[in-house]
Amino acid sequence: xxxxxxxxxxxxxxxxxxxxxxxxxxxxxxxxxxxxxxxxxxxxxxxxxxxxxxxxxxxxxxxxxxxxxxxxxxxxxxxx
Length: 80
Fold this sequence. Notes:
Blueprint: H1 3-12, E1 15-20, E2 23-31, E3 34-40, E4 48-50, H2 53-59, E5 61-62, E6 65-66, E7 75-79
Antiparallel strand pairs: 1-2, 1-7, 2-3, 3-4, 5-6
Protein backbone atom coordinates (compact mmCIF):
# COMPACT_ATOMS: atom_id res chain seq x y z
CA UNK A 1 0.00 0.00 0.00
CA UNK A 2 1.10 3.56 -0.49
CA UNK A 3 1.81 5.98 2.34
CA UNK A 4 -1.43 7.84 1.48
CA UNK A 5 -3.44 4.60 1.59
CA UNK A 6 -1.89 3.74 4.97
CA UNK A 7 -2.76 7.22 6.30
CA UNK A 8 -6.36 6.82 5.08
CA UNK A 9 -6.61 3.41 6.80
CA UNK A 10 -5.36 4.95 10.05
CA UNK A 11 -7.82 7.84 9.71
CA UNK A 12 -10.82 5.55 9.15
CA UNK A 13 -10.07 2.62 11.48
CA UNK A 14 -10.18 1.95 15.21
CA UNK A 15 -7.50 -0.70 15.72
CA UNK A 16 -4.89 -1.80 13.20
CA UNK A 17 -2.43 -4.65 13.60
CA UNK A 18 0.38 -5.06 11.11
CA UNK A 19 3.79 -6.59 10.50
CA UNK A 20 6.85 -4.91 9.02
CA UNK A 21 10.58 -5.70 9.27
CA UNK A 22 9.79 -8.98 11.10
CA UNK A 23 8.10 -7.02 13.91
CA UNK A 24 4.45 -6.79 14.95
CA UNK A 25 2.69 -3.50 15.73
CA UNK A 26 -0.67 -2.20 16.91
CA UNK A 27 -2.17 1.21 16.20
CA UNK A 28 -5.11 2.39 18.32
CA UNK A 29 -6.75 5.51 16.93
CA UNK A 30 -9.32 6.00 19.71
CA UNK A 31 -7.10 6.75 22.73
CA UNK A 32 -7.40 10.00 24.71
CA UNK A 33 -3.74 10.75 24.00
CA UNK A 34 -4.15 10.64 20.23
CA UNK A 35 -3.20 7.91 17.78
CA UNK A 36 -1.14 5.40 19.73
CA UNK A 37 1.34 2.97 18.16
CA UNK A 38 3.41 0.31 19.83
CA UNK A 39 5.39 -2.76 18.96
CA UNK A 40 4.02 -6.08 20.19
CA UNK A 41 6.52 -7.96 22.37
CA UNK A 42 9.32 -5.36 22.10
CA UNK A 43 12.76 -5.74 23.65
CA UNK A 44 12.36 -2.16 24.86
CA UNK A 45 8.88 -0.56 24.94
CA UNK A 46 8.56 2.43 22.57
CA UNK A 47 4.84 3.22 22.58
CA UNK A 48 4.15 6.69 21.26
CA UNK A 49 1.14 8.87 20.58
CA UNK A 50 0.67 11.21 17.64
CA UNK A 51 -1.91 13.84 16.73
CA UNK A 52 -2.34 12.84 13.07
CA UNK A 53 -1.70 9.85 10.84
CA UNK A 54 0.79 11.90 8.82
CA UNK A 55 2.74 12.78 11.96
CA UNK A 56 2.83 9.08 12.94
CA UNK A 57 3.99 7.94 9.50
CA UNK A 58 6.68 10.63 9.31
CA UNK A 59 8.04 10.30 12.85
CA UNK A 60 7.60 6.73 14.15
CA UNK A 61 10.79 4.84 13.33
CA UNK A 62 11.15 1.12 12.66
CA UNK A 63 14.82 0.14 12.60
CA UNK A 64 15.64 3.82 12.10
CA UNK A 65 13.33 4.26 9.10
CA UNK A 66 10.12 6.34 9.21
CA UNK A 67 7.09 4.04 9.06
CA UNK A 68 5.70 5.95 6.08
CA UNK A 69 8.75 5.00 4.02
CA UNK A 70 8.02 1.34 4.79
CA UNK A 71 4.33 1.46 3.82
CA UNK A 72 4.82 -0.78 0.77
CA UNK A 73 6.33 -3.46 3.06
CA UNK A 74 3.51 -3.30 5.63
CA UNK A 75 1.35 -6.42 5.96
CA UNK A 76 -1.98 -5.57 7.61
CA UNK A 77 -3.09 -8.50 9.77
CA UNK A 78 -6.22 -6.92 11.34
CA UNK A 79 -8.24 -3.71 11.27
CA UNK A 80 -11.67 -2.56 12.30
